[in-house]
Amino acid sequence: MSDSVDPYRLEDQVGYLLRLASQRHSIIFQNRISKDLTPTQFSTLIRVAEKKEVSQNQLGRLAAMDIATIKGVVDRLKAKGLLRATADPGDKRRSIISLTKAGAELMEQLYSDGFEISQETLAPLKKSEQKTLLTLLRKIT
């Protein structure tokens, strides 16, 4: 290897660091979430709450999940009594997803959980660093 090229060090690689940060965040999420939810279920509920009613395909796009994944997530949330699916009156092949009463009642707690999870994840950083990190993450996504 040339003297002008830094050696490859795993601990300096973006993918490795993102995975470590993601693992840390996942542990915080699991310890802080009030309901027995996965991160994908949490994101799905948040997106449905934002839209009130949304097609399953659109929900997948909003929650950054493929068709098969969002179907499984919706099915599990329906089984938990948090979501309902109804046929679209304009297109019976299409499902419209919305919160059940139990799902709607849970949202205030989930928003609070989400804020606390983010705060704990970002706690090692100064406020200015937190803002910079979020800006940079948005830029690469």
Secondary-structure topology with pairs:
Blueprint (H helix, E strand, L loop, with lengths): L13 H19 L6 H13 L1 E3 H7 L4 H13 L3 E6 L2 E9 L1 H22 L4 H14 L1
Helix pairs in contact: 1-5, 2-4, 2-5, 3-4
Main sheet characteristics: 3 strands, antiparallel
Strand % is: 5-15%
Percent helix among the residues? 55-70%
Structural class: alpha+beta
Tally of DSSP β-strands: 3
Strand order of the largest sheet: 1-3-2
Mean pLDDT: 93
Principal-axis shape: elongated
Q: How far is the first residue's CA from the last residue's CA?
A: 33 Å
Helices, by number, come to 6
Order of helices and strands: HHEHHEEHH
The residue ranges in which pLDDT falls below 50 over 5 or more consecutive positions are: none
Cα gyration radius (Å) = 19 Å
Task: Give a short summary of the structure.
By secondary structure, the protein is of the alpha+beta class. Helices cover 62% and strands 13% of the residues. It contains six helices and three strands, in the order H-H-E-H-H-E-E-H-H.
Describe the structure.
- The chain is α+β, with helices and mostly antiparallel strands and 141 residues long.
- Helices cover 62% and strands 13% of the residues.
- It has six helices and three strands; from the N terminus they run ααβααββαα.
- The protein has helices at residues 14-32, 39-51, 56-62, 67-79, 101-122, 127-140, and strands at 53-55, 83-88, 91-99.
- A three-stranded antiparallel β-sheet has the order 1-3-2.
- β2 (83-88) and β3 form a beta hairpin.
- α2 (39-51) packs across α5 (101-122).
- The longest helix has 22 residues, at 101-122.
- The radius of gyration is 19 Å and the shape is elongated.
